[in-house]
């Protein structure tokens, strides 16, 4: 369950990481740290609210609009609240050749939701993504940093059961 | 067995760690380059190797390096393109995950050759777990004295930064990648100026693919001539091929350029043949953007000679009867695959990934997707086929970056070689829209 943040501030550990990320880029080029910081923010809050984006903008000393235009361009960032597990399902050709569409239909039916929706218990959000660079191991989906490969109906049952515990 | 340059030690347990990699001869190329060679000497060897960029465009890496502007007092940058996103391509993912130090070693050598003191590896954001593997490898290399200040007492300093993308295919285009690395939207830049003159932060920059950079160590250790001796003619060296689709053994294979396509598909050393009981129908040889080939043009050229896995042989006959090696994303289709559906799928991909900057691509990709969708779902007309060809021609060559071409080629080639399959969808909509229905026609199968 992701909550709307009340106090927008990185945890002390993430603040250290954020400062270290900013320092990687040449002086005056701190804006380069925008994508890394947005990933870090999404890791903490689950999604990027306007307040979170404003906070990241202040850290980098850039305008809020510079953050919004980037966050809306890149598909990995969630601009609305999401469930505990975001399933990012590959819908591109090579995965489809391996039965990706059938498995995807089964997953939608199992969760009772369509792409872009979250289950009523806030456990799963389903998102369609394009090629995840794992075409030889398709069908594939990703949850956070983990790749789930060679998907079948049975494998989907196992994964959902495991994550629902 | 072909020559292995990159994957020679792939099966050694623990090869992802510094200690094991070092025991297998790792980082000896850094020692050789920094202690015995000048930066220009390294560039010379890479030029002699004749290795062509492995990201897809195939531009010789040594030549790209020699274009780098070197004005006094301005920093130069090397950026590794690890934004691997071309459908059908997963070799860089495989390489970085399994042998991260091969890339780190190549980055050190390449940065030294170019005179860069801060270099970047731009990895697609979805591969966050690979980013963590690379960061660990960098920390290990630094602890061993191969990164940081005054490396091996040579006076050369280098810092490596791993940078995550955000899920945008367009950032594999080098100028979009640089924009993205500067913290902006990934809109490709107009060229000129080329990155070699004004790249990252408006400073001279070289952008190279993971596989290209990872090869630098072998070239330094063995010499450019030894590399050029592998392969055939202007297709020198080895190439990582990502094999997927309806084959017995999908995976990443390193081949010596020049292997016959037929052997690559059917030999047990590589793809192992088409899955049981099925036949080869079509091939996308170099990632989703290259022209699709029908069965009768895959293993043989138009003149009947065997087609080889080289840049030249795959493109033999131009787009009429040939295709491209591209990124080496080798997608095999058997007779159960529907070319119309796959073309619609790829079209949707390019529409989704168009950055929206140039109108022919922004509007054209969406238009093609829509038309292909209606053909696939039984609402097409014969006029739609010519319309698709027309739209694809108007995108091709009319955009700032190659995404427009990449979107146009799969559509134009599918119609060129599988027109009867499109027509069947239009004239037999009730049959064609049945689940799993595929055109049987008189198509040639191998």
TrEMBL record, chain A:
<comment type="similarity">
    <text>Belongs to the complex I 24 kDa subunit family.</text>
</comment>
<dbReference type="InterPro" id="IPR036249">
    <property type="entry name" value="Thioredoxin-like_sf"/>
</dbReference>
<dbReference type="Pfam" id="PF01257">
    <property type="entry name" value="2Fe-2S_thioredx"/>
</dbReference>
<feature type="binding site">
    <location>
        <position position="90"/>
    </location>
    <ligand>
        <name>[2Fe-2S] cluster</name>
    </ligand>
</feature>
<dbReference type="InterPro" id="IPR042128">
    <property type="entry name" value="NuoE_dom"/>
</dbReference>
<feature type="binding site">
    <location>
        <position position="95"/>
    </location>
    <ligand>
        <name>[2Fe-2S] cluster</name>
    </ligand>
</feature>
<dbReference type="GO" id="GO:0046872">
    <property type="term" value="F:metal ion binding"/>
</dbReference>
<keyword id="KW-0411">Iron-sulfur</keyword>
<keyword id="KW-0408">Iron</keyword>
<keyword id="KW-0001">2Fe-2S</keyword>
<dbReference type="GO" id="GO:0051537">
    <property type="term" value="F:2 iron, 2 sulfur cluster binding"/>
</dbReference>
<dbReference type="InterPro" id="IPR041921">
    <property type="entry name" value="NuoE_N"/>
</dbReference>
<protein>
    <submittedName>
        <fullName>NAD(P)H-dependent oxidoreductase subunit E</fullName>
    </submittedName>
</protein>
<feature type="binding site">
    <location>
        <position position="135"/>
    </location>
    <ligand>
        <name>[2Fe-2S] cluster</name>
    </ligand>
</feature>
<keyword id="KW-0479">Metal-binding</keyword>
<feature type="binding site">
    <location>
        <position position="131"/>
    </location>
    <ligand>
        <name>[2Fe-2S] cluster</name>
    </ligand>
</feature>
<dbReference type="GO" id="GO:0003954">
    <property type="term" value="F:NADH dehydrogenase activity"/>
</dbReference>
<dbReference type="InterPro" id="IPR002023">
    <property type="entry name" value="NuoE-like"/>
</dbReference>
From TrEMBL, chain B:
<dbReference type="GO" id="GO:0008137">
    <property type="term" value="F:NADH dehydrogenase (ubiquinone) activity"/>
</dbReference>
<dbReference type="GO" id="GO:0051287">
    <property type="term" value="F:NAD binding"/>
</dbReference>
<dbReference type="Pfam" id="PF10589">
    <property type="entry name" value="NADH_4Fe-4S"/>
</dbReference>
<dbReference type="GO" id="GO:0048038">
    <property type="term" value="F:quinone binding"/>
</dbReference>
<keyword id="KW-0285">Flavoprotein</keyword>
<dbReference type="GO" id="GO:0016491">
    <property type="term" value="F:oxidoreductase activity"/>
</dbReference>
<dbReference type="InterPro" id="IPR037225">
    <property type="entry name" value="Nuo51_FMN-bd_sf"/>
</dbReference>
<dbReference type="InterPro" id="IPR011538">
    <property type="entry name" value="Nuo51_FMN-bd"/>
</dbReference>
<comment type="similarity">
    <text>Belongs to the complex I 51 kDa subunit family.</text>
</comment>
<dbReference type="InterPro" id="IPR001949">
    <property type="entry name" value="NADH-UbQ_OxRdtase_51kDa_CS"/>
</dbReference>
<keyword id="KW-0004">4Fe-4S</keyword>
<keyword id="KW-1278">Translocase</keyword>
<comment type="function">
    <text>NDH-1 shuttles electrons from NADH, via FMN and iron-sulfur (Fe-S) centers, to quinones in the respiratory chain.</text>
</comment>
<dbReference type="Pfam" id="PF01512">
    <property type="entry name" value="Complex1_51K"/>
</dbReference>
<dbReference type="GO" id="GO:0051539">
    <property type="term" value="F:4 iron, 4 sulfur cluster binding"/>
</dbReference>
<dbReference type="InterPro" id="IPR011537">
    <property type="entry name" value="NADH-UbQ_OxRdtase_suF"/>
</dbReference>
<keyword id="KW-0520">NAD</keyword>
<dbReference type="GO" id="GO:0010181">
    <property type="term" value="F:FMN binding"/>
</dbReference>
<feature type="domain" description="NADH-ubiquinone oxidoreductase 51kDa subunit iron-sulphur binding">
    <location>
        <begin position="340"/>
        <end position="385"/>
    </location>
</feature>
<protein>
    <recommendedName>
        <fullName>NADH-quinone oxidoreductase subunit F</fullName>
        <ecNumber>7.1.1.-</ecNumber>
    </recommendedName>
</protein>
<keyword id="KW-0408">Iron</keyword>
<dbReference type="InterPro" id="IPR037207">
    <property type="entry name" value="Nuop51_4Fe4S-bd_sf"/>
</dbReference>
